[in-house]
Amino acid sequence: MFRSVWPTTILFLIWLCNDVTSKRNHTLKPRVVLPENYVKEMRPPSRKGQPVVVEFSIYVVDVNSINVEDMDFRVDMFIRQTWVESRLQLPEDIFEEGDDHVTLPPEFFDNLWHPDPYFLNSKVTEIAELTHKFSSVTLYRNQTVRYAARMHAIIACQMEFQLYPMDIQSCPIYIESFSYSNQKVRFRWSEAGVTINPELKLLQYHIGEPLRLEETNGYMIDKDGNFSRLVVYFRFERQIGHHLIQTFAPSALVVMLSWFSFWLDLDAIPGRVTLLVTCMLTLVTMFTGLRADIPPVAYVKALDLWMAGCMMFVFAALAEFVVVKVLDKQYQMNKSKTQESLPRIIPVRLNGEKGSCGTVAAWEGSGVRCRKVDLTSPTSPPATTPVVHPAPGAPPTHMVGVERRQSILQVAWVDADTGQERVLWREIDKLSRVVFPALFLLFVTMYWPVLLLKTKASS
């Protein structure tokens, strides 16, 4: 029984010794490159008091979302820092043959001096160095240290929406040293600079290469000093295709639909009113839905001008219907008054009794009045021409015609060429069929060129 246990025990001890040896080598190997008097809180010495130069490069992996309501964007990236640590002692045995660098465990980074950059305009920053996941430390033969880590940050961006939905947002990222002034540490962009993942695509935006990179010095009041700062500007250009399909094309069709009311007869009041009111409510609903996509800014946006123009055209069509309806009502009232003011002529054949008239009698509201007609007299009017005696207080016959002409001329007139009566409200409807499309076309031809010119100037 003991003979069967001994081989297993020996194998276990050999494995344990190898594991301890490997762990010992793993932990002792980094200590070789650090001198005994190394203090990680002190920055590396430099010549003639010059600041330590730290080079940065960023590789943008993904931009998760651009939140216009909170005015920020989320970015995942790899950030690399490179500086020279002249206090390191690098024995040759730590490098493999043919290599000029060695990659050490991320925990070794805690034993080194390292710069303390932070994102000045970041709301939330999650750096991989906190847990040492997705990070690495690389040492080069020339005593250069490179630290790379994956980072997720929410960057605040002051956005402008005057040209919405053709706005171009320029969003900067500020990287600044927190503890060391520019006399001790200087940040600088490396040759790689900022690189964006070529496969990165956003839903509503087009993101290209960074607009520009800057190296500045920012004065911090709370720390009373100038600190080295790196700035990278991202350019987010909104794609207009979505809004062309969802906003501009439907609203233009609604405006065109309101023009159909000019071809409807004025007697079709329910159909005409329903069409115009439906168009107006449709535009209001569209405008309300679009307002939820952007924050309630205090200035007028380009989309507001478009929607206001469309609503004004539909409202003008509704106002045109009210005007022509009032004119038609006035025309009908004037026509009825004119017909009522004219006397009603009734031919009557009388029997020639005592006190009777001749052959013609005129009847008005005051009763029947007759005049004796002598058919044999050459001076008497013919039997076919009635003679009307106006009632007491009634206007003369020639004054009735003048009043009729004065009242109808306000809403109707007779065409001198054709001799036909032309009604004002009908002429307004015919004119609106041409004027409204022409004005809308003028509005479109002025809106888009101005918007495109302003967008080009802002870029």
Describe this structure as you would to a colleague:
The chain is of the alpha+beta class. It folds into two domains: 28-239, Distorted Sandwich (Acetylcholine Binding Protein, Chain: A), CATH 2.70.170; 242-338 and 426-458, Methane Monooxygenase Hydroxylase, Chain G, domain 1 (Up-down Bundle), CATH 1.20.58. 34% of the residues lie in helices and 28% in strands. The protein has six helices and 17 strands. Strands 1, 2, 3, 5, 6, 7 and 9 form a seven-stranded mixed β-sheet that branches. Strands 4, 8, 10, 11 and 12 form a five-stranded antiparallel β-sheet that branches. It is rod-shaped. It starts with a helix and ends with a helix.
Write a brief structural summary.
The protein has 459 residues and is α+β, with helices and mostly antiparallel strands.
Which spans of ≥5 residues are poorly predicted at pLDDT below 50?
A: 1-17, 19-29, 352-368, 370-409
**Which CATH class of the largest domain?**
Mainly Beta
Q: What is the string of SSEs from the N terminus onward?
A: HEEEEEEEEEEEEHHHEEEHEEH
- Please state the structural category: alpha+beta
What is the overall shape?
A: rod-shaped
Overall pLDDT level:
77
Radius of gyration (Å)? 47 Å
Subcellular location: Cell membrane; Membrane
Region (Disordered): 374-393
Protein name: Glycine receptor subunit alpha-1
Transmembrane segments: 248-266, 273-294, 306-327, 434-453
